[in-house]
Amino acid sequence: MDTVFLARLQFGLTAGFHFLFPPTTLGLSLLVLIMETLYLRTKNTLYKDVSAYLVRILGVVFVMGVSTGIALEFAFGNNWAAYSRMVGDVFGAPLAAEGVFAFFLESVFLGILVFGRKKVSPKTYRLSAFLVFLGAHMSGLWIIIANSWMQTPAGFRMEGGRAVLEDFFKAALNPSTVVRTVHTILGGWTTGGLVAMAIAAWLLLKGRFPEKAALLMKASLAVFAAAAVLQLGSGHAHSVQVTRTQPEKMAAFEALWETQEGAPFTVFGIPDETNEKTHLAVRIPKMLSLLVHFDPSGKVLGLNEFPKEERPPIFLPFVSYHLMILFGLLFIFIGTAGVFLQVRKKLSGARRYLKLLLFAVPLPYLANELGWISAEVGRQPWAVYKVLKTSDAVSAVVPAGNILFSLILFTLIYALIGAAGLSIVLKTIRQGPGDEQAGTHKGAA
Amino acid sequence: METWDLLKNVWFLLIGVLLAGYSVLDGFDLGIGALFPFLAKSEDEKRTLIRTIGPVWDGNEVWLLTGGGALFAAFPLAYATVFSGFYLALMVVLFALILRAVSLEFRAHDPARKGLWEAAFVGGSALPALLFGVALGNVVVGIPLDARTEFTGNFFTLLRPVPLIFGVLGLCAFLLHGSAYAALKTEGALQARARKAVKVLVAATSAAFFLSYIAVWIDMPGAVKKIPAWVFAAIVWISLGSLMRSARKANDKRTFLLSSLTFLGLWGVVGAIHYPNLVRATDPALSLTIANASSSALTLKVMLLIALVGMPLVVGYTVFAYRVFKGKVGPGDAGY
Q: Which of A19, A96, A383, B304 could be A393's S-S partner, Cβ–Cβ 3.0 to 4.6 Å?
């Protein structure tokens, strides 16, 4: 088999699996911080119990994230040695900075959150919650800086076939960093928020810890609904940026075969790459131009502008992008309905809504993965946009057989720890936000 | 010296500091993991031993990730050559670290598969403890590289005698460090076993150090003639000797500090004989050195700034966290 294909498959699998956990951590660390702040303000121990409950869940999610993150730190050298040699001068620094500025912070203070409740003062504990929140988000920022540089590289020059850093801030704050960071973090808040809402819904449906469940519901609904609405804006801004900086990617998202003034938004369709046609297309005239240029007759570049060997695949980015938007709109609906019920004080008894939340849990995860697939597949055939092709980025010395071997082991090990991790998270959730001591003791036994 | 040259030297030193920091901190986690079945017999003892590292192992491991990231950023050519060249060996290390990372949490919460997760903890600690030394041994004694600085050997090239001796030395030092930490943090029968292990392991580490020094002497006679190598070797011998005495007197704190110092001395020896190489090639003309494998002066400067701002903070709050969890650990304490 082809080494490039296998290396991509392995990176996709390991990064895609890893990407289940950090978004959850982003949302849950925010909720823990909210609960600890409320506890410190009100001295109401209900908040403390809810926080301790979330910390137990966060602990499991975090080790899954750490465990699967190590593989990615290795991956650039393992499978993408040509890439590492060519762009390491620019790309390595954000990875190192993530360790120094974010990962240490998150790990050390998570140790205090999980094990140190009785060893530090409430104020120090809240500070630890803040630093875990900060560490998790800074970690996201640095990784997205690295990723964004691959999408919209800036702040460097080519010298002897290698990218050489010219301006650190231009490279770090390249045209897609800020909007992608906001978009990803909001995705994390949506994920953590909805997970926490579903947990609260389950407790309410079972009639367990109703007071604590109601508190958790209120806080997580606030986070989820706000993030879902803000995501509409950030998603839009992100699409505008993609149109400006990677026009062939936007053309792939929309299966826009020909450049058009007044381009339509394709609501549904089945793109056919060989015949360059979209079957069963349902289009809103002029909508795409309006959305990305704020002008119904604005010109949007089509795939015809780009040589075939420099076009991304169309089908996968098209489908992923559209499903992601669909889920995003669904989240706004779920959030608004929740706020409506909450304001009318009917949320705790709205059994159908609560059940809906349980079934909705996979959706934010799907939305995150789909967004990531659109972004990364839409960047192809480039590893670094217009600088280095993915096919030229792999390790020359690693034979296909070795990658196949590691790919099989990754699959088996991730299946094992994924299944075990999920069952442990579910078990932790089932224990409920009981009295903190009892919970810790039970967990330890 | 030109700024760029200075920066290259500084980064050679700083990566050494990160890796030494990793050895001193995560070193005892690895050692405790590998010695787990020998030190802890009852479930209470097992839980106690796990709790000595529970709150800190994760932060300790970040030293490795940061060291790896810093190597990538400062010397991308060396990072690319080693990580792609040692593919299968590093995959083994990687799978071990992945399983170890989840093992403690899972062992506590997944009673049906407790044995499996315990094995993951032990194997996931022992394998990296051995293979880190093997990998280091290979880049120090030299590996076959071609003109494009690509590794031309295979998995078995890595298992030559001298790197294997380095592996054994690393393993002994990790085990020594783990038992010293266990003696410091526990009481009773567990502590007695840990103290006994320290005495055996200090002898084993001394023997392995002596052997590897001889091996390097035969393999690379020029390298050991450097004065700093002798100085650091003397530090290793002195700390191992004092360690033996403090182990006899059951002075656990001193023992732990001395096993930390042993690690620093070992890294000093490696740095002294290896400088200015990053990856020694069988044909010395092809070696990757700080001169030909580094990033640009600007990248090294930015990274230095990041390190100067960030690392004092890291050290500060790491010390804080260790103070929060200081003292002896018992089975009733908060933890897994």
A: A383
Task: Give the separation between CA B241 and CA B235, rounded to whole angstroms.
Answer: 10
In chain A, residues with a C-beta closer than 8 Å to the C-beta of B59 are: 104, 107-108, 111
- Residue A445 corresponds to which amino acid? A
Out of A87, A111, A440, closest to residue B58 by CB: A111
The DSSP code sequence of B207-222 is HHHHHHHHHHHHH-TT
- Which residues of chain B have a CB within 8 Å of the CB of A79? 84
- Closest Cα in chain B to A110: B55
Q: Which residue type, as a one-letter code, is found at position A354?
A: L
Cross-chain Cβ contact A406/B77 below 8 Å: no
With contact defined as beta carbons under 8 Å apart, do A413 and B103 qualify? no
Q: In which region does residue A280 sit, left (phi positive, over 0), alpha (psi from -120 to 50) or beta (all else)?
A: left
Q: Does the beta-carbon distance from B95 to A413 stay under 8 Å?
A: yes
Domains and CATH numbers, chain B: 3-321 (1.20.1630)
Q: CB of B126 within 8 A of CB of B172?
A: no
d(CA B322, CA A109): 11
Nearest to B193 by CA among B42, B7, B17: B42
Among A53, A56, A357, A334, which residue's Cα sits nearest to residue A212?
A: A53
The structure tokens listed for A110 are 């998570």
For Cα atoms B7, B78, B102, give the angle at the middle one, nearest 5 degrees.
105
Mutate to test the interface with A, among B17, B43, B57, B98 (most CBs of A within 10 A): B98
> Does the pTM of the predicted model rise above 0.80?
yes
Residues of B in Cβ contact (< 8 Å) with A78: 83-84, 87, 90-91
Percentage above 70 pLDDT, chain A: 98
How would you write A299-314 as a 3-class SS string? Answer: EECCHHHCCHHHCCCC
Answer yes or no: do A81 and B83 touch at CB < 8 A.
Answer: yes
Q: Interface pTM (ipTM) of the complex? A: 0.93
